[in-house]
Specification:
The structure holds two protein chains of two kinds.
Chain A lengths: L5 E7 L2 E7 L5 H8 L18 E4 L2 E4 L12 E3 L12 H9 L8 H14 L5 H7 L11 H14 L8 H5 L3
Parallel strand pairs in A: 1-5
Antiparallel strand pairs in A: 1-2, 3-4, 3-5
Chain B lengths: L21 H5 L15 E7 L5 E7 L1 H4 L4 E6 L23 E2 L5 E7 L2 H8 L3 E6 L6 H6 L14 E9 L2 H6 L3 E9 L11 E7 L3 E6 L4 H12 L6 E5 L14 H13 L3 E4 L2 H7 L6 E9 L5 E11 L7 H10 L10 E8 L15 H18 L3 H7 L6 E2 L5 E2 L4 H12 L1 H4 L7 E11 L14 E7 L5 E5 L8 H13 L6 E5 L16 H28 L6 E4 L2 E4 L2 E7 H12 L2 E7 L19 E12 L6 E11 L6 H20 L31 E7 L21 H13 L2 E2 L1 E2 L3 H12 L5 E2 L13 E2 L28
Parallel strand pairs in B: 1-12, 7-32, 8-30, 10-11, 14-15, 20-21, 27-28, 29-31
Antiparallel strand pairs in B: 1-5, 2-4, 2-6, 3-5, 7-15, 8-13, 9-10, 9-12, 13-14, 16-17, 18-26, 19-20, 19-25, 22-23, 23-24, 26-27
Classes of the chains: A alpha+beta, B alpha/beta.
């Protein structure tokens, strides 16, 4: 027999929500199956690929390794919570502008991991970006457009009027 | 075919555009197959074989059916009709009928109200197996014809044998100043898309089936469903969801797609399955492990007199694309440097592992690795700079090769020059301190296969265009967005022709009910083929709109111009209409404005059996320099930087081209250094650890810096001159790394991945005075068939074989080396 559902309250993308689910479910499953937020993806469900990254109390976590029950009373942010009032987050804007999202499957996780980085480190070095994103796999981009997008967004979030370098978009001609 | 517009006239094409689906992807709105949840949906799970090779003696699913929540159980007898991507390899069953051929081969399936119930039910299906001798690799399969994995192979467990000869190669080698032989091995690797395969089927009471799937080839899934389910294709709708990465791994029709369809038909409810990551490793269809032998004769100046190439592919348990893959290991050796005489012998073995198929580069990265390292050795033997050797002997543009491939534009020369200059090659090659090295390699790839999988005279790509009286345009095309940007290509090209913004164009793709056929996202065909079809459809729309706008403006047709959302007289640009007004005029006069376009490649020059693989409307070219740091104490190779130049003909969307090139370099780097489908070495043939953790792929910490040069030399066959860029730039990376390792520490690693263990062993051998090399030492004796002999164009041939092989079963008297 399936376990009886449990109910928790949490802050999800800024809203107070309540959700009931079978107690063995992971945060990943609760988000996708019980809250209908399919923007959070999965690549292994074993904590190996980083694809299911969300922010739990502003810290990146692998939602496939967090029990839904452990999120009672906590703050969860998913990709659906990044844009504000129809305006993309600067990271989303930069990812779209540079083609840092190719297939787009790992993108929500990269965006959230990068958001957490920029929250603590508004001017990260390339190496710091690599370290912060080293737990997230991407098979499309070779990560390069992702680094460049994080740098572009970081500059804009610092108030700079930043534009992508021509060789970023066109290569060396 | 419309093409070749002057670059100065282009307003949209060639710029860096945000992709039309970019916002959906960065907001998590894109619906991948597993994101679909339908009312009353059931979940399906597959029972998979625990044995690599076994006969199924009995299956008893009765206990599974009694698990609460289970709605249906299927076994092989419920789906007895075979299928497969190639017409010559219809050797798969949705669920094994009487035999399993690899650990993970699907045997039975369950649909239940929850995944948990379905999983629980699988454990209750009783299968009795008679275990057969298993074949862990191609050498074993070549040596042992029995027990045969399949009953239709060319010989024993050798699935396919090919022998093609273009001119007398032995005589050509006799004229050479130097003849060199080398052996290489390219380990198998897998696509590893971040998205696990998923499919959802729905059956309606009026007898219609809908399948949503993570597939690169909805057209071929459509065909397979019709065949296996014995339904009219008219009653089947296949919708390709955006793929969360494909790389060739979602190009076959799969067991799980057919199974959910059948389960939906039986239960009358939607059925979904999402494979676990472990199951994705069993689906595989990735790079064939390939053993290669190459013998080349060269003159003192490096000119090739003749080349003889042999390959042995480890195919895994089923045919998949394998016959094509085998041909591809021999097809493109001739398209980079002039090879006046050429012989290719290829064999593919069945083994008891997940089937191999097309992974990015399909059958060509392996021989390209061999050829480019082989040439590096030849250059050293001749005392020539490897860049100079290549530059001196490039295939001329607009020429035919020995194996009758038609070369159009050929930008390899500029590519080599760019990476040589950018990397400081002349100051660094052979001049860096011990442990640091630099290596060069080049490559070429097809821009779409010249022939379809099912030979017919119909177009490879079709586009329909609908012009709305509000000024919007919708483009319908069967192409499949797998992250490469194919939806944006359609929008960009239609916008260019009609003078609109790409975001004015609505794009409907990958839906067999709504869109005309495009054969699929494989063989780097999509930009060229859908692009040409889109140009034709858009130009037809432009013509009809221009006719009526011209009347209104009182301007002759040739002066009616489309730009910036307006239609105007180019001699008096103030006099014009909005695009919407122009559409309304045309619609009032002609009725609904809809047009079609289609594209079929020109016939190939080669007419011999086997000439179907290799021809392409255009070949892309790449050159790569890799820089390495090798630690002689550990053998660890690090690649700090790669310079890559790619001849793309013309970039349609510059940003997308950059992404494809960088992504190709990344995947090539993974294959060069770490990626391998590793199996336990005994006859259990179990994948070592089918997981993202243990299948090593580059993270941000291993990925190198990349300097990208985009070379544009518009090809008349491409839309606005475009050639491919999604696969070709992968090819030169593994050989460039191998050549750089030699420059760094003086040992030859003649196989990939170039792991620390292999480098270390080669260094130890060198210290002991042995050959400083790691790689294969022999190519097995194979009873090749009589060669199909085709004279090269310069020897008076007409593309036909003069002396056809006497049949594949009749092997030549003795095995040849």
């Amino acid at each position: 027999m399936p376990d009886a559902k449990v109910k928790i309250a949490l802050e999800l993308n800024g809203d107070a929500v309540e959700v009931a689910f079978a107690p063995h479910k992971t945060l990943l499953e609760v988000l996708r199956e019980d809250l209908g937020l399919t923007g959070t993806k999965h690549g292994c469900e074993l904590g190996e690929c980083g694809t299911c990254t969300v922010l739990l109390d502003a810290t990146p976590v692998l939602s496939c390794l967090v029990l839904g029950l452990a999120c009672a009373g906590r703050r969860v942010k998913t990709v659906e919570g990044m844009a504000a009032g129809g305006t993309l987050h600067p990271l989303q804007e930069a990812f779209a502008e540079l083609g840092a999202a190719q297939c787009g499957y790992c993108t929500p996780a990269f965006l959230l991991a990068a958001e957490a980085l920029l929250a603590s480190s508004p001017r990260p070095t390339r190496d710091a970006i690599k370290q912060a994103l080293s737990g997230n796999l991407c098979r499309c981009t070779g990560y390069i457009k992702i680094y460049e997008a994080v740098e572009l967004a970081a500059a804009r979030m610092r108030g700079e009027d930043a534009k992508p370098a021509p060789e970023t978009l066109y290569g060396v001609r | 075919m419309a093409s070749g517009k002057k670059p100065s006239g282009l307003r949209v094409v060639g710029k860096a555009h945000r992709k039309v689906d970019a916002t959906a992807k960065v907001t998590g709105v894109t619906r991948f197959a597993d994101d679909l949840f339908l009312p009353r949906m059931l979940f399906a799970k597959l029972l998979r074989s625990p044995h690599p090779h076994a006969r199924i003696l009995s299956i008893d699913p009765s206990r599974a059916a009694s698990v609460p929540g289970v709605k249906a159980v299927l076994t092989g007898k419920d789906l007895p009709i075979p299928f497969g991507i190639l017409p010559v390899s219809q050797d798969e069953h949705a669920l094994a009928l009487d035999k399993v051929r690899f650990v993970g081969d699907p045997v039975a399936a369950v649909a239940a109200t929850t995944e948990e119930a379905a999983t629980q039910a699988l454990d209750l299906i009783a299968v009795e197996y008679e275990v057969l001798r298993a074949f862990p690799d191609a050498l074993d399969a070549v040596e042992h014809p029995e027990p045969a994995i399949h009953d239709y192979a060319d010989a024993g467990n050798i699935h396919k044998l090919i022998d093609l000869e273009f001119g007398d190669v032995e005589a050509a080698l006799a004229q050479a100043d130097i003849v060199r032989e080398d052996l290489f091995f390219f380990e198998g690797s897998t696509h590893l898309p971040m998205e696990q395969h998923a499919a959802v089927a729905d059956w309606s009471a009026d007898g219609k089936l809908t399948l949503w799937s993570a597939t690169q080839t909805p057209h071929y899934v459509h065909r397979a469903l019709a065949k296996v389910l014995e339904l009219s294709p008219a009653r089947i709708r296949v919708i390709a969801c955006p793929n969360g990465g494909g790389f060739g791994g979602k190009s076959d029709p799969f067991s799980h797609e057919i199974v959910v369809a059948k389960l939906a038909m039986i239960t009358g409810r939607p059925v979904k399955t999402t494979l676990t990551r472990e199951e994705v490793f069993y689906c595989h269809r990735g790079r064939h492990p390939t053993l290669m032998w190459v013998k080349t004769g060269v003159k003192r100046d490096g000119a090739i007199t003749g080349m003889h190439f042999k390959s042995l592919l480890d195919g895994g348990g089923y045919g998949s694309y394998g016959v094509a893959s085998t041909y591809y290991t021999g097809a493109l050796q001739t398209v980079t440097y002039h090879v006046p005489r050429y012989r290719f012998q290829g064999a593919r073995a069945f083994t008891n592992k997940p089937p191999c198929g097309p992974k990015r580069g399909h059958g060509t990265p392996q021989p390209r690795f061999a050829l480019e390292v082989h040439l590096d050795k030849i250059a050293e033997q001749l005392g020539m700079d490897p860049a100079e050797l290549r530059l001196k002997h490039l295939v001329p543009p607009n020429s035919l090769t020995a194996n009758w491939l038609r070369i159009g534009t050929m930008g390899l020369g500029p590519c080599i020059e760019k990476v040589i200059r950018g990397s400081g090659w002349k100051q660094r090659f052979k001049q860096l301190p011990y442990g640091k090295g630099i290596g060069l390699a080049c490559s070429s790839y097809i821009t779409g296969a010249g022939l379809p999988i099912y030979w017919n005279a119909m177009p490879h790509s079709g586009v329909q265009l609908k012009c709305d009286r509000g000024g919007g345009v919708t483009v319908f095309c069967g192409s499949t967005e797998i992250g490469q940007g194919s939806d944006s290509i359609l929008a960009t090209i239609v916008a260019e022709v009609l003078g609109l913004d790409p975001f004015d164009i609505a794009v409907v793709t990958g839906d067999t009910d709504l869109t005309p056929v495009d054969l699929g996202s494989y063989s780097s065909r999509v930009t060229l083929m859908t692009g040409n079809a889109a140009i034709q459809a858009a130009e037809r729309a432009r013509d009809v709109i221009a006719l009526h706008a011209g009347k209104k403006l009182d301007a002759p047709l040739e002066r009616v111009t489309f730009a910036a959302g307006r239609v105007f007289d180019v001699q008096d640009p103030e006099r014009g209409l909005t695009f919407a007004e122009a559409v309304q005029l045309a619609e009032a006069a002609e009725g609904t404005i809809g047009t079609v376009g289609s594209y079929t490649p020109a016939p190939s020059a080669g007419k011999y059996r086997g000439a179907g693989v290799g021809p392409s409307p255009a070949y892309s070219y790449s050159a790569c320099v890799a820089e390495v740091d090798v630690d002689p104490a550990t053998g660890i190779v690090r690649v700090p930087k790669i310079w890559i130049a790619h001849d793309v003909g013309r970039a349609i969307n510059a940003a997308t081209v950059m992404g494809q090139i960088e992504g190709s370099v990344y995947m090539g780097l993974g294959e060069a250094l770490m990626e391998e489908m590793a199996y336990r070495g005994n006859r259990n043939v179990v994948h070592k650890i089918p997981s993202l953790l243990e299948y090593k792929s580059p993270t941000t910490l291993e990925m190198c810096d990349v300097v990208t040069y985009v070379v544009e030399d518009p090809d008349p066959n491409g839309p606005f001159g475009a050639k491919e860029c999604g696969q070709g730039p992968l090819l030169p990376v593994p050989p460039a790394v191998a050549n750089a390792v030699y420059d760094a520490v003086g040992v030859r690693i003649d196989e990939v991945p170039i792991t620390p263990e292999k480098v270390f062993k080669a260094l130890r051998r060198k210290e002991k005075g042995e050959a400083g090399r790691f790689g294969p030492t022999a190519f097995p004796d194979i009873a090749w068939p009589e060669p199909t002999r085709v004279p090269p164009p310069w020897e008076g041939g007409d593309g036909r074989a003069v002396e056809s092989g006497k049949g594949r079963q009749q092997a030549a008297g003795s095995a040849r080396r």
